[in-house]
Amino acid sequence: MEFVSGYRDEFLDFAALLFGWFRKFVAERGAAAASVDGRWQQLETQIRRLPQDPALWVLHVLPNHSVGISLGQGAEPGPGPGLGAARLLGDEPPLHLRDLSPYVSFVSLEEGEEEEEEKEEEEENVEEEGADMEKVEPEEDGEPAPVSSETPQEANPPGEPEEAEQDAGGGEDGCREDRAEDEKGPERRKGRRSEAAPLHLSCLLLVTDEHGTILGIDLLMDGAQGSAGRVSGTENLAPRAYALLCHSMTCPMGSGDPRKPRQLTVGDAQLHRELESLVPRLGVKLAKTPMRTWGPQPGFTFASLRARTCHVCHRHSFEVKLTPCPQCSAVLYCGEACLRADWQRCPDDVSHRFWCPRLAAFMERAGELATLPFTYTAEVTSETFNKEAFLASRGLTRGYWTQLSMLIPGPGTPRHPWGSTPSLSLLLGGDPYQLLQGDGPALMPPLPPDPPRGLFGSWQDYYTWRGLSLDSPVAVLLTYPLTVYYVITHLVPQSFPELNIQNKQSLKIHVVEAGKEFDLVMVFWELLVLLPHVALELQFVGDGLPPESDQQHFTLQRNGPEVSARSGPGVSARLNSGTKEKGGHRDLQIKVSARPYHLLQGPKPDLVIGFNSGFGLKDTWLSSLPRLQSLRVPAFFTESSEYGCVMDDQTMAVATGGGTSPPQPNPFRSPFRLRAGDNCMPWYCNAFIFHLVYKPPQGNGARPAPRPAPPAPTPAAPPVPARRRRGEKKLRRGARRRR
User: Bias category Basic and acidic residues: which stretches (predicted)?
Assistant: First the structure.
């Protein structure tokens, strides 16, 4: 079995979900159009019987005049097979968003004077919307429909749909780095236009609820009905919009059963008028006036969708009914056929028959992993956790918080492509925690006047000493430095007491296969606070790091109350630590090596650490693990699930003949539960920690690693749902009576 929950980019799952739903919608819409009118009457009757959703639904109309989508074969733009639907939709899932960047890019459809004319039209549209903006009138029950809090300048006018589309999260929008690329000179864009023959998405129809959950989507390409005629691109859209609404009710893309809304509002005046005679046939109230601006609620966000998939056939929950395995409750299947196929896979150790009792044991740890001291624990550890809504409600939509979700950076946020070298010039304001801040008050309090007197072994202890409220979510970002701290102060002394690491005044640490943690590099500033008398050198190593960062080196330096950061000539910042330190102090050195770990040359480190490693998901580990075996340095790794720890142990055995220590829960794990697509297991960033157990130098190949307790006996037959078992018992009793 193989799970990529906790490793794969959420945006890729989001894109696959959009494509899967849209493909099904187009097929069923075509079948309905080819049938007689009785099919629509039957569908309308079915919708009228659906339960009512108390939430308001919104039909957004997003025209697009200026942005085209170029699908290329690789580094060169142009039409071609590109990545392939199979790889994108799950058969060979890319694990990182940057895998899409060579294949999908945005190109400008404007040239010369057309750009200026379009800009003038946009300004006129903004003024017209500002003059005509109205509120949706309250309904009879007295509950008002949502009103946008945006000014006309903040709303998305018809000429500026790009950011709205990025919010919507379409698959072709999946690369934020492409946005930066397309901001380059117009000459390059013109040349690419002629070579790439970009697709033009003329209009996007989007159905959401007031909380931001996407329920349906329709894409109108050039040449499609309604894509020509009026400038707004909404002429003759009523049949398509009506079909989209029907399908969104009977087959909602987001989580939840089929349902119809209490009330519907439409984002286009003409389409609103055309739907006035159609929507009541579904038993749905249509708002009296159209929605004039984008935001239906001040806290509106596009939520991380929780539509699950079958582990075997990858069909989504809007296509088939999914149920967990009756025995382990961990893996989701669409029926007995997929369960039986997974049960009988060969070789045996990849079959569900082999893994079922083990996964059942992993499921029993869910309560333990969800035991955290925060006031928001129940919300963020739930299987239905809406991460985007949680972050947006707290104003965490800028800085490092955008790395945790699909939210785009907020206004005024310094933007840089994912994976680029952190710009220390952004910290000229003097606050080392600037990128941890949100829109509200400061999240990090001033530093305590005295260094820690004891060792922290839990978030509760650390928050108390640091002066943090248990309502603060900064643990989600600080899980990385606090995990390093825990390894240094607790795990290395327990497992390698001969190193006497607590008495060392300097430590050289390699962070291997670094990626996301390097994008959050300033969070490691907290190590200067927790270990003030230790000089630390963190070297980030991995071929996933940006090549332009290779061999870069900068220092975070404490000079009394101030800290200076240098990243080569011409780049510096002064960071105020807020307190004057007593006694000696040390620096934090940051180095970058953009290469696989086995190709790294240099002094031997004191310690190696890897975050959410996934040994079995990247071939370079088969070379990096033997390199660690030869160095024989303490190497600690985290995983987002206990399943990942078992897979890492197997990979270590194949690569070196060694093994791993039994994993233990990390007290400084992230409190945010990660979304799992095809299973119900609890996944958390940095959930478990283990260290490598090396094969003895003169060993005969036998593995010395301590092994976990023997698993439960493997059942011989796949579990049968309870109803079927009861039915079989009745048949057997009837046969005995007849005999």
Answer: 173-188
Per residue, the 3-state secondary structure of 205-268, as one string, reads EEEEECCCCEEEEEEEECCCCCCCCCCCCCCCCHHHHHHHHHHHHHCCCCCCCCCEEEEEEECC
Identify the weakest region by mean pLDDT among 60-64, 312-316, 506-510, 585-589: 585-589
Distance CA 475, CA 53 (A): 35
Closest Cα to residue 365, out of 663, 695, 43? Answer: 663
pLDDT one-digit tens code per residue, 368-396: 999 999 999 999 999 888 888 888 888 88
Separation of first and last alpha carbons in the chain: 45
pTM: 0.77
Q: Go through 536-560 and write b for each residue having 16 or more CB atoms within 10 A of its CB, e for each that does not.
A: bbbbbbbebbbeebeebebebbbee
Query: What DSSP state is assigned to residue 420?
Result: S
CA torsion angle for 331, 335, 336, 338 (degrees, to 10)? -60
β-bridge mates for residue 564, sequence order: 557, 574
Which DSSP category does 489 fall into? I
Task: Give Cα separations from 458 to 229, 475, 501, 541 (angstroms).
Answer: 63, 11, 20, 28
Reported as a single tens digit per residue, the pLDDT across 390-404 is 888 888 888 888 888
Contacts of 78 (CB under 8 A, 6+ apart): 70, 72, 195, 196, 197
Cβ atoms of 309 and 316 within 8 Å: the answer is: yes
- The CA distance from 678 to 691, in Å, is 28
If phi > 0 it is left, if psi is from -120 to 50 it is alpha, else beta; for residue 450 that is beta
- Measured CA to CA, the distance from residue 618 to residue 462 in angstroms comes to 34
Helix (H) or strand (E) holding 537: strand 535-541
CB 389 within 8 A of CB 297: no
Rounded to whole angstroms, how far apart are CA atoms 520 and 420? 11
- Round to whole Å and give the CA distance between 466 and 468: 6
Q: What angle do CA 139, 144, 148 make, to 5 degrees?
A: 130
Share of the chain above pLDDT 70, in %: 65
Contact 73, 82 (CB under 8 A): yes
Nearest to 95 by CA among 9, 17, 6: 9
The helix or strand, by DSSP H or E, that contains position 380, with its residue range, turns out to be helix 377-380
Going by their DSSP bridges, the two strands 199-209 and 52-63 should be labelled as antiparallel
- What's the DSSP call for residue 521? G
- Tell how many helices (H) and how many strands (E) occur in the chain: 22, 20
What tokens does 174 get?
């999946």
Cβ contact 215:258 at 8 Å: no
Task: Compute the CA torsion angle 50, 53, 54, 60 (nearest 10 deg).
Answer: -120
486: how many CB neighbours lie within 10 A of its CB?
A: 23
Strand-pair partners of 637: 610, 690
Q: Which of 450-454, 584-588, 679-683 has the lowest mean pLDDT?
A: 584-588
User: How is residue 179 annotated by DSSP?
Assistant: H
678 against 425, higher pLDDT: 678
CB 202 within 8 A of CB 63: yes
Q: How far apart are CA 518 and CA 487, in angstroms?
A: 18
Name the residue with tokens 């339960």: 51
